[in-house]
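tool_call: predict_structure(chain=1)
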Amino acid sequence: MTRFDDEPWPLAEPAYRVPWRVDRSRDPWFTLVNDGDEPASGVQISLSGDGRLLWRPLLTVAAGDQVTFVVQADDPARNCIACVRWFRPDGTEYLWRISF
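tool_result:
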């Protein structure tokens, strides 16, 4: 796109970095770690595919805290996808997909 005036382009806000990291070292026990610098509230994990998800829902996961969950499936890498849903402190909702 071409600009025909001398006004500078407005600066965009930096992208929001997804705060989550998944520790897969104890499969079928997985650990979702909040590596961000702010709490995530309304955290929910759902599983799509051929399997079961076991976890204890938490309302808030503080920065540095973690949530452990279990995926029971014959082959989660082929048959399952988890979705994490959370809200930032400003109320913005986010979704993030986990592949196994």
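agent: The two ends are 40 Å apart (CA to CA). Proceeding to next step.
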